[in-house]
Amino acid sequence: MSDADTQTMTIGDKQYPVRHGSVGPAVTDIRKLYAQTGMFTYDPGFTSTASCESTLTYIDGDEGVLLHRGYPIGQLAEQSSFMEVAYLLLNHELPSAAELDKFTYTISRHTMLHEQLAQFYRGFRRDAHPMAIMCGVVGALSAFYHDSTDIADPHQRMIASHRLIAKMPTIAAMAYKYSVGQPFLYPDNSLSYTGNFLRMTFGVPAEPYEVNPVVERALDRIFILHADHEQNASTSTVRLAGSSGANPFACIAAGIACLWGPAHGGANEAALNMLREIGTPDRIPEYIARAKDKNDPFRLMGFGHRVYKNYDPRATVMQKTVREVFDSLGVSDPVFETALQLEEIALKDEYFAEKKLFPNVDFYSGVILSAIGFPTTMFTALFALARTVGWVAQWNEMISDPEQKIGRPRQLYTGPTQRDYVPVGER
Ligand code: CMC
């Protein structure tokens, strides 16, 4: 029984307080449930569980709304910059012009990696996936930056956050350079955050690199679209790792590991691979049929979402950005046509309509990243780069929360009850 108006939920003969946020579903505070009833709640995948209180990001999945600190993602993507969104997520409010300049300058002062870290890369196989390299190198940062691992000190926490945001483009670009056998490029702090990343990725020491402003703007927008997304799997991983008091670099490495999976950040790579495999629009019905077949594990990658039961607002911006980049670069890719037709056919299909499966952010991101020149293996690394902002903001929020405890879920045990050990010779 629940009655949000009475502000309590009754379970058995006990009442539990209902708490209301500023917007969105209320929660029942069941922290005393086990102590009072001896029962746990059962919620695999946390579909009905609010794990924390947060002021960062709000999603209304039914309406297709995504807000960062109250600002709609569409407005931020169109009018803001990634540095401004990073400031907003970390500091609660949009910056003044002077605050933005100072923040951008501070981030630029942390873009270089400890020189010894370059040695780490040489330990990986040339064909290592960039996400494997990112997990390793980001985890290793704690061995190099001891002066920002005291999580009880807010100043150290902020330095670690700035370092992670600043160094992630350098780490990702070096992972790419290593895979193609080209020399690493040092950061150029006269460029924007995104322009610098493009140069470190696609430039070579032998000649100057011209940042294309259309590509720079498009990639910056992609970073904004990926900056944060409430309590998703990788963010919850960062929070869980951080709840034990682990240092921020280890926590973000844990987030990168979780993001890599094809049901999460790995979906952008999988979506483009799928679109390429489909190849031409005439093969779309075959793949739609496979996605609907219960006996086939195949899923339409870039479709469906745990929270959005409507069009993902990030996919709307992403689709528009593909058109802008293609128009301004004068390029085209048959894969985009396949994507548009696949979307149209799927949205008219009863299966997808009934299950409320719509394109998500990853459906179009691969098309645009590929047009810019990134290989598919870099797609999830770019997601990790951008999501680092959300991860550090959420991690800071958690550490500052007086109600924060170590994360320790319980379980419904269905294994053997107690029995006596039998020596091996008697079994
Ligand atoms: N293609 C075909 N069927 C699907 C798909 C899909 N992409 N997604 C969900 N379904 C079906 C699923 O088979 C299930 O059917 P039934 O009720 O008959 O068993 C129903 O829809 C509900 O799916 P679910 O797996 O229970 O839903 P979920 O909330 O646990 O999963 C998801 C969400 C994103 C993991 C899933 O939709 C999926 O695997 N999508 C493809 C991967 C993808 O694009 N992931 C990127 C997510 S957005 C970026 C990010 O957050 O990282």
From TrEMBL:
Keywords: Acyltransferase, Membrane, Transferase, Transmembrane, Transmembrane helix, Tricarboxylic acid cycle. The keyword Acyltransferase applies. SUPFAM superfamilies: Citrate synthase. One of its GO terms (biological process) is tricarboxylic acid cycle. The chain crosses the membrane at residues 363-386. Pathway: Carbohydrate metabolism; tricarboxylic acid cycle; isocitrate from oxaloacetate: step 1/2. The active site is at H305, D362. GO terms for molecular function: citrate synthase activity. Belongs to the citrate synthase family. This is Citrate synthase. It comes from Sphingomonas baiyangensis.
